[in-house]
Write a structure and sequence with these properties.
binds nicotinamide-adenine-dinucleotide, 11-stranded mixed sheet, two-stranded antiparallel ribbon, alpha/beta
Length: 511
């Protein structure tokens, strides 16, 4: 299978194909470039000389021939309308098709009226427009991007087609250094699909999988060729420097080199720990994140925060290490125990509270978590991280509910509550501190409906203990620990100072 990128004009398919292909050491294949070569002039000129029907016929022929010769490591970018051809759609069945979605307003800005030739995915690929991909595209090469309303209508009419055809949704995790692809699709965890989307050349870089003893036996055999497999005991109590040391030792014993890479297969614990080992082993090797829990699929696998806990506090030792790729297969959630799914749902709830809009409506109405929900959560997190990779500003919003949540985890020795359960309690505290009693009541009911704790019950934790752990939070700078509070769903505020008495009252409400 080749990896074939589809999506609307202006999505950035050519730019992304360039990046992905160069990471694999192959040249990208671009259907528009081939068409321009065949016509000997621009696509716009072809449109005006012979009309759209004639162009589509030529496009279908060129794309079908391209797809019939594309091999397993190839990355192919198709023109936005290529999938209108039934012959192209049937040729795509023999490949892995990834839909690069784009907001129509963003696409319009990029291609509108013939002014813009770039299809930037973010700072990482700025400057790599169609020309870099080999297609001498110009604004006038976008004959369907001349009228804004028609452009938006076309985007709306094509989106369902792309979704139907695609095996995966492709998002881009922009980072300062470069960026990484995120693939979301049910069924991606199979050898041929992974071979098509793998970000590294597996002939030259061997895969060493780090997983846990529960997930490994269930899913590791889907990963294709592994040079080694290290399974740690499941659960938060494995997120320690001692377990990291064991992993480093096993990597060294297996002869892992800097040319190789790690595959983190598991929940957030495996992702954080294996990511940390990857960040530090021989000063850093690439990591491919394959999240298998809901927490990891909607949150922890993205953004490059890795680390381990100390007895004194959670995530106290770690490193920023962006993944080489994230591969999300929601079908693996079928084996996730219900209580773990519920705990993961709290991260969906948190993301929805931060994002507001359609995601909040979906979650507030307690509609089920489907593939689209996972994509929307991933998109939301990626956009926050892209603005602030190193957590010095906007990224701090992601800590909504986590200040008290982490303190509860620490106070209970990481063994009584799942991370998501503790964050659910932390969200209740944060909403009280936000002065939003109605929203708190709504979230309380949602947590109850998901069988999640809404009070500390018989956990032997006191207000003093939580307050003192909060004051030692690693986010503390200067005289207070900053809280993330909400003005409304979609309107978070960072850096809020919370008087001690208010914090104690919010925690007391949980005790
Ligand atoms: N790095 C970040 O940005 C970030 C963000 C949020 C959370 N986190 C971290 O994530 C961790 C929590 O993640 P988690 O809830 O995934 O914990 P986890 O990794 O312990 O997984 C929870 C349990 O589910 C099991 N499991 C996972 N996938 C499964 C599957 N498909 N089938 C059957 N069992 C499966 C695991 O074996 C484990 O027992 C915490 O340590 C938290 O700090 C990190």
């Amino acid at each position: 299978l080749a990896l074939v990128l589809i999506g609307f004009m202006g999505a950035g398919k050519s730019s992304l194909a360039c990046l992905l292909a160069s990471a694999r050491g192959v040249a990208p294949l671009d259907s528009d470039a081939l068409l321009i070569e065949r016509f000997g002039h621009s696509i716009a000129e072809e449109f005006s000389a012979r009309g759209e029907d004639s162009f589509r016929a030529a496009e279908s022929e060129v794309v079908c021939s391209l797809l019939s010769s594309a091999g397993p490591r190839d990355v192919v970018a198709l023109g936005g309308g290529a999938v209108l051809s039934p012959a192209v759609r049937s040729a795509l069945l023999g490949h892995l098709t990834a839909f690069l979605d784009v907001d129509p307003a963003v696409a319009w800005e990029r291609v509108a009226g013939g002014g813009e030739t770039q299809e930037p995915l973010g700072a990482a690929v700025a400057g790599e427009g169609k020309e870099a991909a080999g297609a001498a595209s110009s604004g006038s090469d976008r004959p369907l991007a001349r009228d804004r309303d028609a452009f938006f209508a076309l985007h709306a009419s094509r989106a369902p087609l792309y979704e139907e055809i695609a095996d995966a949704v492709l998002l881009w995790g922009a980072s300062d250094a470069s960026g990484y692809p995120v693939f979301v699709g049910s069924g991606l965890l199979r050898e041929d699909a992974l071979a098509a989307l793998w970000p590294l050349d597996r002939d030259r870089s061997r895969s060493f999988c780090v997983t846990d003893e529960t997930v490994g036996p269930l899913h590791a055999d889907r990963l294709g060729p592994l040079a080694g497999l290290i399974a740690i005991p499941p659960g938060e109590t494995s997120k320690t420097i001692a377990v990291a040391e064991r992993v480093w030792g096993e990597l060294a014993a297996a002869g892992t080199t800097r040319a190789d890479h790690i595959v983190a297969l598991g929940g957030g614990v495996v992702g954080d720990l294996a990511g940390f080992c990857a960040a530090t082993y021989q000063r850093g090797v690439p990591v491919v994140q394959i999240p298998t829990s809901l927490v990891a699929q909607v949150d922890s696998a993205f953004g490059g925060k890795t680390g381990v806990d100390l007895p004194a506090a959670k995530n106290y030792v770690g490193a920023f290490h962006q993944p080489a790729a994230v591969v999300v297969d929601p079908s693996v959630l079928a084996t996730l125990p219900a209580a773990e799914f519920a705990a993961g749902w709290v991260e969906v709830l948190k993301t929805a509270l931060l994002a507001g809009g359609g995601l909040w409506e979906h979650v507030a109405a307690d509609r089920p978590v489907d593939e689209r929900t996972i994509v929307e959560c991933a998109r939301s997190k990626l956009s926050v991280v892209a603005e602030d990779e190193r957590d010095s500003g906007r990224r701090q919003i992601l800590n909504l509910g986590h200040t008290v949540g982490h303190a509860i985890e620490t106070a209970t020795a990481y063994s009584r509550y799942r991370h998501g359960e503790a964050v659910g309690l932390g969200l209740l505290a944060a909403l009280r501190l936000s002065g939003l009693p109605d929203l708190r009541a709504q979230v309380y009911d949602l947590l109850l409906a998901h069988d999640l704790p809404v009070s500390l019950g018989d956990a032997a934790v006191g207000v003093d203990e939580i307050a003192s752990i909060v004051s030692a939070d690693k986010k503390r700078v200067g005289r207070f620990t900053p809280f993330v509070l909400l003005s409304a769903p979609g309107e978070p505020r960072i850096g809020c100072e919370v008087p001690d008495a208010e914090l104690r009252a919010a925690v007391a409400e949980l005790v």
